[in-house]
Amino acid sequence: MGTSPASPLPFVKSKTPFRPRVSKPKVRTGCIVCKIRRVKCDEAKPACLRCTSTGRKCEGYAQSMPIQGKDTSTTPEDSSVDSDSNRSFTLIPVLSGASVDATERRSLHFFWLATENDISRHFGDDFWRGLVLQMAHAYPAVQYALHATSALYEAYMMNNDAGLSQGMLDIPTSRAAMLRQKAVKLLSGHMLEDRLPRQVVLTCCLLFVWLEFLRNDFDAGLTHLKSGLRILLEMEQEQKQQLHTPVSYSGSVPTLQDVDGTISHMFTRLQIQAAIHGYPTSDFNSTPLRFPSEAIIEHIPQSFRGIAEARHWLDNIVIQVFQLIRQKQQFEASQGPAATLSPHWPLLIRARDSHLVRLEQWHRAFRNSEHLTHTPGAASPAIPLLGLNHAMAAMVMKNLFSESELTYDRYHADFERLLGLCEASLRHSRRETSGPVLSLDVGVLPCLFYVTLKCRDTAIRHRALHLLESAPDREGMWHRNSIIAAATWKVAMEEQWRGRAEPGKQLLPESARIYREKVIVAGTQRGPAKVKVRFGGGPPGSADVDWEVNRLLSRFGDMI
């Protein structure tokens, strides 16, 4: 794909002190900008005073359009869309109408399909189809970024080779490249002049992350993720300063209240994903970047009011869990064999114990929330996904300081429970399109990979490999095909050494087990790459050479 590497967005320091976040009901009337800001609009015509009095540009009022069932006015270009996805384009009323040409109409259709199977929708978040579409109507930078993402999804959907390829997409993505460049240029100019609400900038960051992940350019995607996190953390810091040093507040400057809570949580989810994946050149491995606190309080509640609240609490624990794992790895790499003798080592163990306590507190609160698990909504993938995220985090923490891979043999029942939760999630997921499922959020792929890496029971491992075949094509940075390639390679290697060491023995001997696999040679930049992997353990001498793995994405991460 002939595009230049993504450059980070200019980081503009806000001039504003911030107030504590107050929950507000959704605004259903008023101008487009006030709806996006979730503030009450005075609805003056032609431009509302709420916008003009604070120096904002009022974008007017969206035409109210009823949601219809079928759109019969399709163009010849529209009719080429896969018949399984021929839902009405008027499901997107804020961007429908005569002002939308056939190309934009097609793009919105594919964006609608792309977001249909995103994991976040199972938790009641309709961010992509609600707030993002409203902002795309009001802000060209968001619209360009949206259309670029849509163009890449269409490339996957309409070209089987592109959908299966593990390299960067080549066909047909020239339009996506052009739109992406327009979005970055427009956004950069507005940010330098501080003319955009922070919420709009952060939404563009999220779209850019998704766009670059689809292109498999993880460096660029993580750069955009860090840009968004810096903005959120600066806002949080200035809010704290405001609490300690009250100053007069000017309503003309954006505050933390202008940022929808869903956006902050999506950045936390992406940061978790980056920490788990372990992309080789990622700062998320070596530096535990701070994350937006989202108004975390000291104690986990006795029960949760809803699925979203339960997920927010769990994610705020899980991000710390995987940051601790990367901290420990970096500490061991820097200290060598003397790591366990360092006075810092007991602090790491204490942090592990603290996270286990908080995970148990969350689990207790979740069990107390019977209204969540005994309602019609309990049949959605959300419930098993919450259980899956909790169980995997707890298991990783329990084994963080294990000195032998044999320790995992005591957890076969836990591995089976993880697979049961994965099965429940996949069973409840309704695939409403025939195209690939390319979710930005993460569901079952990391957990299924973890089971194949750490469980040496043959039946459980092969069950996990079987489930991978029916998992989504992509979950953020995770490629199903790459995971299958890596897992199949590891299982074959260990089974080969099992036979060499102790034929007929049910449990895999420790001498046949490998761990801490890491991609060390990043093969080609295009197509299924042949890459090399180094690991610890295995028979004598096996860890001293580089092993070639076929069909593994060269930008694969550091396996936990």
UniProtKB/TrEMBL annotation:
<dbReference type="InterPro" id="IPR001138">
    <property type="entry name" value="Zn2Cys6_DnaBD"/>
</dbReference>
<dbReference type="InterPro" id="IPR021858">
    <property type="entry name" value="Fun_TF"/>
</dbReference>
<dbReference type="GO" id="GO:0000981">
    <property type="term" value="F:DNA-binding transcription factor activity, RNA polymerase II-specific"/>
</dbReference>
<dbReference type="GO" id="GO:0003677">
    <property type="term" value="F:DNA binding"/>
</dbReference>
<keyword id="KW-0862">Zinc</keyword>
<dbReference type="Pfam" id="PF00172">
    <property type="entry name" value="Zn_clus"/>
</dbReference>
<feature type="compositionally biased region" description="Polar residues">
    <location>
        <begin position="70"/>
        <end position="85"/>
    </location>
</feature>
<keyword id="KW-0539">Nucleus</keyword>
<dbReference type="GO" id="GO:0008270">
    <property type="term" value="F:zinc ion binding"/>
</dbReference>
<feature type="region of interest" description="Disordered">
    <location>
        <begin position="66"/>
        <end position="85"/>
    </location>
</feature>
<dbReference type="InterPro" id="IPR036864">
    <property type="entry name" value="Zn2-C6_fun-type_DNA-bd_sf"/>
</dbReference>
<keyword id="KW-0805">Transcription regulation</keyword>
<keyword id="KW-0238">DNA-binding</keyword>
<protein>
    <recommendedName>
        <fullName>Zn(2)-C6 fungal-type domain-containing protein</fullName>
    </recommendedName>
</protein>
<dbReference type="InterPro" id="IPR052360">
    <property type="entry name" value="Transcr_Regulatory_Proteins"/>
</dbReference>
<dbReference type="Pfam" id="PF11951">
    <property type="entry name" value="Fungal_trans_2"/>
</dbReference>
<keyword id="KW-0804">Transcription</keyword>
<keyword id="KW-0479">Metal-binding</keyword>
<feature type="domain" description="Zn(2)-C6 fungal-type">
    <location>
        <begin position="30"/>
        <end position="58"/>
    </location>
</feature>
